[in-house]
Amino acid sequence: MRTIPYLGGKSRYIDTIRSGINALDPSGDKRLLDLFAGSGSVALSVAKEREVVANDIQSYSRVLVNGYSRRMENSPEDYWQDVAAEASSYLDDERISHLVAWERSVFDRSDVNGIVAMLSRGSGMAHGATSVWAQLGLRNQDGLNKLVMTRYYGGVYFSYEQSVWLDAAIAVARRMPEPQVDVGLTLAMRFASNLVTSVGGHYAQPVQVLSRSGVPKDKVALKVAKRRVAFDPGGLLSVAMNHLASVPIELPVRGETADFREAIEQHGANSVIYADPPYTREHYSRFYHILETIAIGDEPGLTYSNLGGGLVPSKGLYRVERHQSAFSIVSQAQAAFNDLFGMARQCNASMLLSYSPIAGGETARPRSVALPTLMELASRHYESVEIVVIDGARHARLNRRDVSQAAPEGAEVLVYCAP
Ligand SMILES: C[S@@+](CC[C@H](N)C(=O)[O-])C[C@H]1O[C@@H](n2cnc3c(N)ncnc32)[C@H](O)[C@@H]1O
Question: Among 74, 96, 128, 274, fewest CB within 10 Å belongs to which?
Answer without folding.
Answer: 128
